[in-house]
Amino acid sequence: MRGSSHLAIGLITGVAVGGLVAGIPFSAAGIALAGFSALAPDLDHPNSRLSKRLGFTQQYVRWAFVLAGLGLAGYTHTMLPPGPDQRMGFTAALAFGLLGMAMQGGSTRKLALVFTGAASVLAGLYFGFLWLSLLGIFICVAPFTTHRSWTHTIWATILWTYIGYLANQNLGWHGIAQYAGAGYASHLVADSLTKSGVRWFLPLSEYSFKLPLISTGSAAGNVLEIGICLGYGLLVLGLVIGRMQF
C-alpha cells in the first residue's frame, strides 16, 4: 500500500482513538502522532515517505565524508612526520574521500537514517529519556532489515506502543501509547489487505496473513486504496458523531 494511503489511514485511526476511546483526550497532536506511527513500519523500505523525511541529512552525508577526508589529509600533512604513520594517514584520507564520492541512493539514505537515529539515542541518554533512545535504535536498525520483515510484526507494534508508554511517563501527555500503538497497528492491518500480506508473528511463524484485495502499484489497486480510505473515514466519522452528545 502507498505511503499516502498509510498516512491517511493512520490519521483516521488517530481520530478514532481520540473520539471513541474513553479517557483519551481528542487532540490534533495525537492524530498527527498516529499518522507518523502509521508510516514507521516502512522505515525498512529505502523509498518510503518516512525514510525520506527522517533521512533529511542524506544530501550532506557524502560531503561530510569528503570533508572528513580533506581534514584528515591536512592533519596528516602538517602534524605527522614522513614515514609509515603519514602514509597510513593519507591512505585513510583517500579512503574517506572516495567513499563519500561513491555513495549513491540507498546507501546514503541508510547512513543518514543511522545519523538521525544515533542523534536521538544520544539525546535520550543525555536527557534521561529512555523512549527517545529506543526510538533512535528503531530508526537505526529498521533500514537494514528486509522489507515487511520484523518492523511488520506484532512484536514491533508492542515495542512501538511501549515507546509511547515511556514517552507518556516522561512528558505527562496521556494517550501517547494509544495513539502510537493504534497508528502503527493500522499499517499492518492495511498491508494485510495486499497480495503480499504480513507475517505478523515472525520469527515464530512465516505464515503471511492476507486478504488479497489490493494489487500495490496498479491503477485498480490505487483506486481501491482511495475507496478504502474514504470508507474507513466515513465509518469513523459516523461513529464519532454518533458518540457526541448535543
How would you describe the overall organization of this protein?
This protein is mainly α. It is built from 10 helices and no strands. The chain has helices at residues 3-20, 28-39, 49-54, 58-79, 84-102, 105-127, 130-141, 154-171, 176-191, 219-243. α2 runs parallel beside α9. The two termini are 38 Å apart. The relative contact order is 0.15. The mean pLDDT is 85.
Low-pLDDT sequence parts: none
**N to C succession of SSEs:** HHHHHHHHHH
Q: Termini, distance in Å?
A: 38 Å
- Beta-strand portion reads under 5%
Average pLDDT rating = 85
Counted beta strands: 0
Structural class: mainly alpha
Principal-axes geometry comes out as: elongated
Report the radius of gyration as a whole number of Å. Answer: 22 Å
Count up the helices. Answer: 10
Largest sheet composition? none
Helix content: 55-70%
Features:
about 250 residues; mainly alpha; 10 helices
Topology overview:
Elements lengths: L2 H18 L7 H12 L9 H6 L3 H22 L4 H19 L2 H23 L2 H12 L12 H18 L4 H16 L27 H25 L3
Helix pairs in contact: 1-2, 1-9, 1-10, 2-9, 4-5, 4-6, 6-7, 7-8, 8-9
Provide a brief overview of the structure.
Helices cover 70% and strands 0% of the residues.
